Amino acid sequence: MPRSKEQFEEMRNATREKIHSAAMQLFVRQGYGSTNVQEIADTAGISIGLLYRHYKTKDQLFNELVTYAVEGLKRIITFFESTQSPKTLMEQFVDEVYSDMINGEQLAHLLILINQSLIAGAAAASIQYDEILQVNARLLDATAQLICKGQQLGEFYTGDAQEMATLFFASIQGLAQMKVLLKNNFTMPSSSTLIAFLLVERK
């Protein structure tokens, strides 16, 4: 019995997911330059011909993964710009980060991939490089503004909001690197530990 259009689309999406997962794993662990297309196909469990049906070059695949990661950063910006309590927003975000880091490697891989793209993009002076820099700057600004608002409401400790925003994301980025390097020996700090430097303790 011939497959329906929907079944073909499901198979296509499933294959792309395998490719994404394999490429992300290899790019993060070996680096972009040290990863070849055959390795990606082998890790994904597909033929190299099938991989080429989805992506004509390794660059195209890498750029799609980076675009996906950047969209994730944009969603965080939108989340931080909502009208909820800064304390509530920060706690929800940190809980999600904690859950993602405990239950899998995708978040860690995405964060490392963005860094790799910045390093590679600096050499190539790519448009994507400029966009990532802009989105990172926007994310830090949105976080600093959220912290400022929380400070005004007495929810967060006083201090330079831009410095606190930088410290916050530097800690998450560092944890992503440690998770990949330490593997099973990695211990993820609790949500409360991640934002202890921010939250004012209520007596």
From TrEMBL:
The keyword Ubl conjugation does not apply. Coiled coil: none annotated. GO terms for molecular function: DNA-binding transcription factor activity; transcription cis-regulatory region binding. SUPFAM superfamilies: Homeodomain-like, Tetracyclin repressor-like, C-terminal domain. InterPro entries: Homeodomain-like_sf, HTH-type_TetR-like_transc_reg, HTH_TetR, Tet_transcr_reg_TetR-rel_C_sf. This is TetR family transcriptional regulator. It comes from Paenibacillus ihbetae. Residues 36-55 bind DNA. The keyword DNA-binding applies. It holds the Pfam family TetR_N. Keywords: DNA-binding, Transcription, Transcription regulation. Residues 13-73 form the HTH tetR-type domain.
